Amino acid sequence: MLHWSDWKRGMLNFLMVKDEATPVQHYLLQRVRSDEPLPETRAVEPDDVIDTQGRVFFINLTVIRQAAQLCGAGHLRRGPSNSPHEDLDIVSAFSCSTLPRRSCRGLMS
Fold first, then answer.
1. Could you tell me the pTM of the whole model?
2. pLDDT tens digits for range 8-64
3. Separation CA 64–CA 91 (nearest Å)
4. N or C: which terminus of the chain carries fewer CB neighbours within 10 A?
């Protein structure tokens, strides 16, 4: 979600966060509670990261770890893709009800 008004009860909610170190096309995903529109205050997955402000962030190691468990010995990792087979690319994604405005920052020299 881009805005707190996008929060939905009972859903997996992440707040899209940018900071000075975040590349233009990337967002940090802050965990938000599913029972009320408040930030999560504890790690949910073993790979979650808690920053110095107490914000809990989901990181892609969780997806990689889960894909490796599902794929077993045949797990292949290529960029954002996790796959059980050389001829198949599977990229995990989250749905976003509101898309961020496109930025041209960094595209022009």
1. 0.74
2. 999 999 999 988 888 887 889 999 999 999 999 999 988 899 999 999 999 887 777
3. 10
4. C
